[in-house]
Amino acid sequence: MNCIRRTLRLAFVIGLLSATATPHLGAQSNDGSFTDRIYWGGGISLAFWNYTAIRIEPLVGYRITPKFSAGAKVMYEYLRYERFGGTVDSHSYGGSLFARYRFIPQLYGHLEYGGQNYERIDASGIEERVGYPFLLVGGGFVQQTGRRTSLYFELLYDVLQDEDSPYDNGGPFITVGIAVGF
User: Fold this and answer.
1) Tens-digit pLDDT profile for residues 10-38
2) How many domains does the chain have?
3) What per-residue confidence (pLDDT) applies to 21?
4) 90 forms bridges with which residues in the sheet?
5) Residue 42's Cα: distance from chain center in Å?
6) What is the domain range of residue 107?
7) What is the pTM of this model?
8) CA–CA separation, 5 vs 28, rounded Å?
9) CATH number at residue 119
10) More exposed terminus of the chain, fewer Cβ within 10 Å: N or C?
11) If we measure between CA atoms, which residue out of 45, 57, 58 comes closest to residue 2?
């Protein structure tokens, strides 16, 4: 199930990279103007197995120094699955702030604090919206694929492991995505 999700995500990323990695974007500059220091990107996750999951997670960041950057993400996730003899449609929303430090051009540390709100349904069919905080710690690998585009791979763990979190063990959370200007 996770393998299919990752494969679909990677196929989408490769297709999107092919479409965005054009030579007219200009060279990346670490001491350029404000707009030269901004990067953006994100990921889309699709899963179709015993349930349907569609997750969209755009991000925007700013390179404060050549090695240190900070930014924000927003998240929306749609889930559809069978439970208690019926079909459940669920929507989750969230947001976070993150910081990244590049140890070398291809390897970075990542710290992210945020929250998510999701619909939880108990065995009696009662729905309630539940929010929980998270603190993700980990790192990633980034590979430049064009003049301003990069493919990245992250491995993160939730060190808070809030009791309302739908994730039992805090991770690992694996993300493959693209960024422009990172």
Assistant:
1) 444 444 443 333 333 333 444 568 888 99
2) 1
3) 37
4) 79
5) 6
6) 2-180
7) 0.72
8) 31
9) 2.40.160.20
10) N
11) 45
